[in-house]
Specification:
By secondary structure, the chain is an alpha+beta fold. It has 19 helices and twelve strands. The protein has two domains: about 160 residues, no CATH class; about 260 residues, no CATH class. The chain has a five-stranded mixed sheet with strand order 2-3-8-4-7.
Length: about 425
């Protein structure tokens, strides 16, 4: 018989819910118990059931063990405990010398835990190193009468569905803690909901938001300002790797060296959003009659790469304003192209910690219309020479080439230095 101390009185530490009856009409139960394991009464008493995995002392195991030691008052909230099938009719309670216990057995075939193995073993390990007895942190156990499961497959269904609980994405966690609020306050260019701040969010059109419009992408683009601030971790050689980092780049919002310079960019979030949309929506116009030969505006999957560039389908990209354009640019190129522009038209003031520009949005767009072809030609040249051979057809690797960032900035600088030329593009068409 397995015997575990309850965390409190019987009526406060265990509940049962009838879920059915057996063939003879006897009730079958689901139990939820809060126990307080110890070295004398370890969780290892519960055998392995239809849990297919062997124990690995990985980072999850270590994190659980650390939490049980250091956060005993919150562990029950943070941890899901163990789920197990038990011998039908064996769950009972007893009070011995003033201590309440839950008793049950797992002798039947396949009975035992089917979820929570890392939690069970990590807690036992933590207790063996520092057993506080009745002051050990409480732990949750779900017990289900085995007669509720007709066969092993049904037990695996329970285990599989339990393990299909999806983890929260980093952005969702930050969003629910209001971590993006300061950035959101600055947005007027487009509906705030057009940027994916949380998992499964839809945009203002009720459409699924693509990675093109994820907050992670927005932060990578805002990072285009950082090289002007001359801060550690904010140079081109650093920010060119942000697309490669995935959601890890969101951690820079709380970085000791980057948090403040990044927050200063929020004032210009509308500029970044509008310019990113303009770069993609104007690509075909900028390339003119050369657009058919530019691979950076075409699909780049394995099947498309087998075709000549002129025969590949145009890339479709989602804009922050909710529209979709054909023949735009891959999202990982945008931080580089925005840096190309920002490094020329924005200045950083060390005293105020602010970024500023003397140019209007329409003027910057006009500069792009004048110099965009030269800039994109640099990117296309590198694309044809090294995208597949050197970078294995991965865009996040392709933009790691900080020399390309320098070359694109140089080409844009040439265009910006010719005001007579770029001012020719100042038309009502730029005002949207």
């Amino acid at each position: 018989m397995i015997k575990l101390p309850l965390a409190g009185d019987i009526r406060d530490s265990i509940i049962r819910v009838q879920l059915g009856t057996d063939e003879e009409g006897n009730p079958l139960y689901y139990y939820y118990a809060i126990v307080r394991p110890s070295s004398e009464y370890p969780l290892s008493q519960i055998p392995k059931g239809v849990n297919p995995r062997d124990l690995e002392e990985n980072c999850i195991y270590k994190e659980i063990k650390k939490a049980y030691r250091n956060e005993p008052e919150m562990f029950l909230i943070y941890n899901g405990g163990v789920q197990a099938t038990v011998d039908t009719g064996t769950v009972d309670t007893a009070v011995i010398d003033g201590v309440s216990y839950v008793l049950f057995s797992c002798d039947g075939q396949d009975n035992g835990h089917y979820d929570g193995q890392h939690s069970k073993d990590a807690v036992d390990s933590a207790i063996s190193e520092n057993d506080l007895g009745e002051n050990n942190a409480p732990f949750a156990i779900v017990m289900t009468d085995d007669a509720l499961f007709p066969d092993r497959a049904s037990r695996r269904t329970a285990a599989t569905r339990t393990n299909k609980r999806s983890a929260q994405q980093v952005k969702s966690e930050i969003n629910i803690r209001n971590g993006f609020d300061e950035m959101k306050k600055m947005i007027s260019y487009c509906p705030v909901e057009n940027i994916q701040w949380a998992q499964n969010q839809k945009n203002s059109n009720g459409e699924k938001i693509k990675a093109d419009c994820d907050v992670q992408q927005l932060l990578n683009m805002l990072a285009a300002f950082l090289p002007s601030a001359l801060v550690s971790g904010g140079q081109v050689r650093d920010i060119c790797s942000w697309p490669k980092k995935g959601s890890a780049s969101l951690s820079f919002l709380e970085s000791e060296t980057l948090a403040e310079p990044l927050q200063a960019t929020f004032e210009h979030v509308d500029f970044v959003l509008e310019m990113a949309d303009f770069l993609r929506s104007s690509t075909m116009d900028v390339l003119g009659n050369k657009e058919g030969t530019f691979g950076i505006t075409k699909m780049s999957t394995a099947s498309h790469r087998k075709k000549d560039i002129t025969d590949r389908k145009k890339l479709k990209t989602q804009l922050f304003n909710g529209e979709t354009v054909s023949g735009g640019l891959y999202k990982d190129l945008l931080p580089m192209l925005l840096h190309t522009i920002i490094s020329e038209v924005f200045d950083y003031d060390d005293l105020t910690g602010k970024y500023s520009t003397a140019h209007t949005m329409e003027e910057v767009k006009a500069m792009w219309l004048e110099g965009g072809l030269a800039v994109l030609s640099v990117v296309e040249k590198n694309f044809k020479e090294s995208f597949e051979k050197l970078y294995k057809s991965r865009w996040s690797d392709f933009v790691l080439d900080d020399l390309m960032w320098g070359h694109t900035a140089r080409e844009f600088r040439k265009a910006a230095s010719r005001p007579k030329d770029w001012k020719m593009h100042l038309t009502h068409e730029l005002v949207k």
